[in-house]
Amino acid sequence: MNIHALGANAKGQQSLTGFDKTASDNKFIVVYPEGFSKAKLGTPLPAPPGVPLYSFNAGGCCSDKPVDDIGFMRKLIEYMEDNYSIDSERIYAMGMSNGGFMTNRVACEMSDVIAAAAPVAGVLFESYSLETPHPLGWTKADDFVCAPENRIPILHTHNRMDNIVPFAGSSGVFEDDVSLFDDINLIDWWGAQTLKGMGFPSVRESIEKWRKLNHVKDSGKVVTSNSNTVCTLYSEPVEGKDDDFAPVELCVIHSEGAKGTVGHCWPGQAEQGAFGRCLNEDVDNSYIWQFFTKHKRNGRKAKGKAGFGGEGEELKE
Fold it and tell me: Which of 85, 5, 78 shows the shortest CA–CA distance to 39?
């Protein structure tokens, strides 16, 4: 499942990520869920005529209605199982921005179904906790507590230069060591103030929580490194959890990305044009897919309680 961003739709995610080609090259099925709630962006600018823009209810982000998007995701998987020849032990979730937030929620609440998750530019955000009113009114969405029955391998990719979902979270908009608002103007200032009121956790906080949930130590090893991307893998189980753990990998990109992305982008080079891509090295669709191929549910039945057994074997055609 490849889940779209706030103010986007299924076709937009299909075009942005280019995952159809990855699926064709590697012989798997990719589906693009579409949100139900109309996106509330807090801007007076209307959507282009005839272009539906939606959001997913990912807890603290990004819906103003308590839509049962987890129920929808479960029904979508049931439909795929009933109508296509798929391997029920190799079902994966990924998504961009709001879709990244939603991917985290799927990992939290569908650990009986999915085998691994890869959020991009979206953190684990269970509830809006600031005392001030939410600037976009998203507090009507239902909160949740991330307590997965099983450990879910996580690959989180985030651009250090992201000024839509800041790497340092909402609290770090003006304090972060990365200048997100160079030559700031009135619109940027308004946007920064809005971001501070969103209550987004930092990437580090999100990863720390997943390490605890997945029973792995906070000592990681660098598995990918180049001029603008570093990936750190946390895969050593804590004491007593050798049979009940799953890895967490964080890929940090440091790139301005393609023009217009404000660092909020999908990893990898652009094959056709440069819109929406981070223009970083090594970490791309193939990297995400290779991460997925290392993991399966290892025989866990739906709604079962068996722990995740570590890494599965590589997929073979």
Answer: 5
Q: Specify burial of residue 28 (Cβ count, 10 A radius: 0-12, 13-18, 19+).
A: middle
* Residues 6+ away with beta carbon under 8 Å from 129: 60, 199
Asked if the structure places residue 305 within a domain, the reply is no
88 close to 81: Cβ distance less than 8 angstroms:
yes
Tally Cβ neighbours within 10 Å of residue 258. 17
Residue for token digits 């804590």? 238
Q: What is the pLDDT of residues 55-81, one digit of tens each?
A: 999 998 888 788 999 999 999 999 999
Q: In angstroms, how far is the first alpha carbon of the chain from the final one?
A: 20
Number of domains in the chain: 1
According to the model, what pLDDT value does residue 84 have? 95
Q: Is residue 159 part of a domain?
A: yes
Task: Check: pTM over 0.70? Answer yes or no.
Answer: yes
Q: Radius of gyration over alpha carbons of the chain, in Å?
A: 18
* Residue 74: CATH number of its domain: 3.40.50
Let me know if residue 285 belongs to a domain. yes
Residue 30 domain boundaries: 2-293
